[in-house]
């Protein structure tokens, strides 16, 4: 039976270590290792192993000391801490790992890994710092810069910000459309919005306006979507601003 880099020959009561050295096992060592090997990766209780030893006619009062000596000798063959294949699980019993000493990682394989208060505090501190960094990244995302942004002065003396997002292809035609719309918005008799953002689709057939107002009962948003095959022609008259509710 393979145990990490070692080989356990149950028939010959023989254990061959990683270097090829052959170890003849005593009856007690053989019985304990057999039970541990059948339960590789699982904790075998100390009580179960003591019961096993006492079942072979040994004085139960001495079995605890016998078990201690057996475990100590098996560890000599299976490797020393912290890379031993045979480990003690405090308050429970013993566990025999199936991984080799070179790949065995106690933190991942041991069912009860204990850390001291200082290590625990460091883990909590690192976790909190990481979560704060993620939270700041989420709550303060990088703003996408508009292709066109301008503060305009309205007829009633108030000012508003207008932003256009037109993608990468910001050609002459789009510049003309933006200039036309800016002039019409600036001429509005009543413009109740604090800011307006316009997003132009890639095919230039849809414009979505997001209007942000400042009301006594809190900030109010309104969305207006326009579809057209020729926005310059269809928006040449300023009436469309009133019809869509952008101007009042």
TrEMBL record:
Gene3D superfamilies noted in UniProt: Winged helix-like DNA-binding domain superfamily/Winged helix DNA-binding domain
GO BP term, example: regulation of DNA-templated transcription
Pfam families from the UniProt entry: Trans_reg_C (PF00486)
Presence of the UniProt keyword Membrane in the record: yes
DNA-binding stretch(es), residue numbering of this chain: 1-98
GO terms assigned for molecular function: DNA binding
Protein name: Transmembrane transcriptional regulator
Keyword DNA-binding: yes
Keywords: DNA-binding, Membrane, Transmembrane
Xref: SUPFAM superfamilies: C-terminal effector domain of the bipartite response regulators
Residues of the OmpR/PhoB-type domain: 1-98
InterPro entries assigned: OmpR/PhoB-type_DNA-bd (IPR001867), Sig_transdc_resp-reg_C-effctor (IPR016032), WH-like_DNA-bd_sf (IPR036388)
PROSITE patterns: OMPR_PHOB
